[in-house]
Write a structure and sequence with these properties.
With 420 residues, the chain is an alpha/beta fold. The protein folds into two domains: 128 residues, no CATH class; 227 residues, 2-enoyl-CoA Hydratase, Chain A, domain 1, CATH 3.90.226. It is 38% helix and 17% strand. It is built from 14 helices and 13 strands. The strands form three sheets. Strands 2-3-4-8-9-13 form a six-stranded mixed sheet, sandwiched between helices. A four-stranded antiparallel sheet has the order 6-7-5-12. A three-stranded antiparallel sheet has the order 1-11-10. β10 and β11 form a beta hairpin. The relative contact order is 0.14.
Length: 420
């Protein structure tokens, strides 16, 4: 009987480890109630710790303050002064204070305060890709060391706004389609995740074939940064290109950021070198940040036109708006430069990421709060950065939605039917 009990216990432990059931229990062992016991000296220590890391490796430190009435070198002092002036310092006021920092940085390089209720979700996002880097696999380990489960439950009760991430829908497909009229079709990407690339591939190709005789296809991207560029490239762009499209990009790093990734062997066989070699294409980079950036990593990208003729040969319209950022701006730029689509709507946000994200995780030692940001500064091979919004080919009016603007664009250009 005793042996059977031991066997059952071993089986249960094995199952718990397999399904990550044990992780909430780890929180009980880690950093109990850090936020509640936080005082002003501890808050100052956290801010200093964060700032020294930003100076060492955050590539957008000065870019973040362009066109704002603050300078990067003054912001560190400003943060500490704000803490000192607070008369009713508490966990609640400190959290509100921390949430303001990414806004002051204008979220450049996806600068984000990650609250505990996002940890498991972000872990899923970071690790569901087919080619996950060692650095991304380590991110969750950083997060789990930060805030205890007890602290998380306390934070939920505080009067603070929670950061909202768009959770993928449970639909059987990652997209919606609609035949607007005899010559206009509509495609809305809802959940273009890595996991749906293969499952949606045939359905999307069937849709493109079904609208082959139409003159216009309007494509709408998700209002989220949590989707896969590979989904869009493989399932939407590649089947509808007329010729192959290739380009190069550069990821720029500070010395500390480069050494961190180099130690993890994150660059593989990619070309690396001194940023001085890129002097001809770095004019758009903030000059103060350019002085901090020391190395580049070059990536070559190739998108194959997989069909002799595109599945849809009419004009493709890609809707743009301020909600397009991150991966969305990367795809918008490709769609524009490759001749795949006409851009219609409003300027994008100016917060793009080329290719894979390279996220650095900073856990503040006293409060246990977590900040994340991009470790690389992205640059296209023609010197264009993604810190400036992408302007559409056809601009929406002030009170007009991008979809409404696309209908107006079609009406104004019906006399010129484009066939690719």
């Amino acid at each position: 009987m005793r042996k059977s009990k031991i066997v059952i216990v071993i089986v249960l432990i094995t199952l718990a480890l397999s399904f990550d059931i044990y992780k909430p229990f780890l929180y009980h062992r880690l950093n109990y109630n850090k936020v509640l016991s936080l005082d002003k000296p501890a808050a100052h220590y956290d801010i200093d710790y964060l700032w020294y890391h930003l100076e060492d490796e955050y590539p957008y430190l000065n870019t973040a303050f362009e066109s704002i009435d603050k300078k990067a070198e003054e912001y560190h002092l400003y943060l500490n002064n704000q803490i000192e002036r607070t008369t009713d310092f508490s966990a609640n006021t400190y959290m509100q204070y921390l949430q303001k920092i990414p806004t002051d940085f204008r979220h450049r390089g996806d600068f984000t305060l990650v609250l505990p209720n996002q940890y498991y979700y972000l872990y899923d996002v970071w690790t569901r890709g087919k080619n996950v880097t060692k650095q991304l696999q380590n991110n969750y380990n950083e997060l789990i060391k930060s805030v205890s489960w007890n602290t998380y439950n306390i934070l939920k009760k505080l009067d603070i706004s929670q950061l909202a991430f768009s959770v993928p829908s449970n639909s059987t497909k990652g997209f919606l389609t609609e035949h607007i009229s005899e010559d206009i079709a509509y495609l809305k990407i809802e959940n273009g995740s890595e996991a749906r690339i293969d499952s949606d591939c045939d359905a999307l190709r069937d849709f493109f074939k079904s609208i082959h005789g139409k003159n216009y296809l309007i494509i709408d991207l998700p209002e989220s940064n949590i989707y896969s560029s590979e989904y869009f490239i493989k399932n939407i762009i590649s089947p509808n290109l007329t010729t192959d499209y290739g380009f190069s990009s550069y990821a720029l790093y500070t010395e500390e950021g480069f050494k961190k990734r180099q130690a993890e062997d994150a660059f593989g066989g990619l070309e690396t070198g001194s940023i001085n070699e890129l002097a001809e294409i770095t004019q758009e980079v903030n000059e103060n940040d350019l002085a901090r950036l020391k190395y580049y990593v070059k990536s070559n990208h190739h998108i194959e036109a997989v069909n002799e003729e595109p599945l849809f040969s009419g004009e493709i319209i890609l809707l743009t708006d301020n909600y397009i950022f991150g991966v969305g701006e990367y795809l918008t730029r490709i769609a524009d430069q490759s001749g795949f689509a006409t851009l219609v709507g409003k300027p994008t946000r100016g917060k793009g990421v080329i290719g894979d994200m390279d996220v650095s995780v900073i856990s503040l030692p006293k409060s246990g709060m977590v900040f994340t940001y991009q470790l690389k500064y992205d640059l296209w091979d023609d010197g264009t950065t993604l810190v400036k919004p992408i302007s559409p080919d056809f601009l929406a009016l002030d009170q007009e939605t991008p979809l409404e603007a696309s209908m107006r664009y079609i009406e104004e250009n019906r006399s010129v039917i484009i066939r690719r």
